[in-house]
Specification:
Layout (H helix, E strand, L loop, with lengths): L27 H10 L5 H12 L5 H10 L26 H4 L13 H11 L13 H14 L13 H14 L1 H16 L9 E9 L8 E3 L4 E11 L4 E8 L4
Helix pairs in contact: 1-2, 5-8, 6-7
InterPro entries: IS402-like_dom, Transposase_11
Organism: Pseudomonas amygdali pv. photiniae
Protein name: ISPsy19, transposase
Length: 254
C-alpha cells in the first residue's frame, strides 16, 4: 500500500491556527457608516455604537486595528483662526523685572533713582547750617538697607559703604527719630492708593507667635496656651497684608 504525503507548502499541511477575528471584513462597511454618521466621536463612543448595531464587543486595540483596516483614520482638528494666549501680568510676583539691577545700583539692595525720589525729603536735612556731611544721606540709607537685606553684622559692611560705625550711629539716630516708620507709612499709603483704597485702613488683622528664647534674649515668660517659654511677637496688618505695627513682649503677656 502506497501512502501519499501532502506537500509541506500546501494548505492541507499548514492549517490555519488561532481564533477568528471578532470584527471581520464584512463588518468594515458598518464601521465606515458609523464613522461618517458621527465624525466627532471618540473611539470609545464608536465602540459603544458598534456594539449597539452588531452586538460585537472587542478589545480597544482590536477595535483600533479594525478601524485602520477599514480605512478610518483619526484627524486632529485644526483651530480656526489664530489664538494667542494672553501675556502674564509682569507686575505680579517677583520676576525678571524686579531682579534686574540698574546702573545706579551698586548692590541689589541699593535704591534706584525713582525709589530715592519718593523718600529723599525724609532723610535730607533741612537748612544749610553746620559742617557739610562727609557721606550723602542716600549712601547711608543704602548701607542700612544692605544690612537689613543681607542680615550681616555692622562690622561686615563692604568697603563700598561708609565706615560701619558711622552707618550704625546714623541708623540709631534715624530709628529714634522715626524716619523708617515714616518711610514705611508713606509707601504703604501709596500702595493702598494704587489698589484704590483709602490711605488709612479701616480694619486690621492681629496675629502672634511665641518662640523660645535664650537667657540673654531679654524678658521672657511662659505662654500657657502654646506651652512655650520665651517671647511673643505680634503683627498687625491691614486687609491687603501690609504691615501696620510690630510688638515684641514676654510670652506671658496676652
Amino acid at each position: 500500500m502506497k501512502l501519499s504525503l501532502p506537500c509541506l507548502n500546501s494548505p492541507q499541511a499548514m492549517p490555519k491556527t488561532g481564533r477568528p477575528r471578532s470584527i471581520a471584513a464584512e463588518h468594515y462597511p458598518v464601521l465606515v457608516k458609523l464613522a461618517h454618521a458621527q465624525p466627532y466621536s471618540s473611539q470609545a463612543e464608536l465602540a459603544l455604537v458598534f456594539f449597539a448595531e452588531t452586538g460585537i464587543t472587542a478589545h480597544p486595540d482590536t477595535f483600533a486595528k479594525a478601524l485602520k483596516m477599514a480605512g478610518i483614520t483619526r484627524v486632529k482638528q485644526r483651530a480656526k483662526g489664530s489664538f494667542q494666549s494672553p501675556e502674564p501680568n509682569k507686575s505680579y510676583g517677583y520676576n525678571e523685572t524686579h531682579r534686574r539691577q540698574l546702573p545706579e545700583q551698586l548692590y541689589p539692595s541699593c535704591l534706584t533713582d525713582t525709589e530715592w525720589a519718593l523718600v529723599a525729603d525724609l532723610f535730607e536735612s533741612q537748612g544749610g547750617r553746620g559742617v557739610p556731611p562727609l557721606h550723602s544721606r542716600r549712601t547711608l540709607l543704602e548701607a542700612c538697607c544692605y544690612v537689613v537685606r543681607t542680615g550681616c553684622s555692622w562690622r561686615m559692611l563692604p568697603r563700598d559703604f561708609p565706615h560701619w560705625d558711622n552707618v550704625y550711629k546714623t541708623f540709631r539716630r534715624w530709628s529714634a527719630q522715626g524716619k523708617f516708620e515714616q518711610m514705611h507709612d508713606r509707601l504703604r499709603a501709596q500702595w493702598r492708593e494704587r489698589e484704590e483704597r483709602a490711605d488709612s485702613p479701616s480694619a486690621a488683622i492681629l496675629d502672634s507667635q511665641s518662640t523660645r528664647s535664650s537667657p540673654q534674649g531679654g524678658d521672657s515668660g511662659y505662654d500657657a496656651g502654646k506651652k512655650v517659654k520665651g517671647r511673643k511677637r505680634s503683627l498687625i496688618v491691614d486687609t491687603l497684608g501690609l504691615l501696620l505695627a510690630v510688638s515684641i513682649c514676654s510670652g506671658s503677656i496676652t
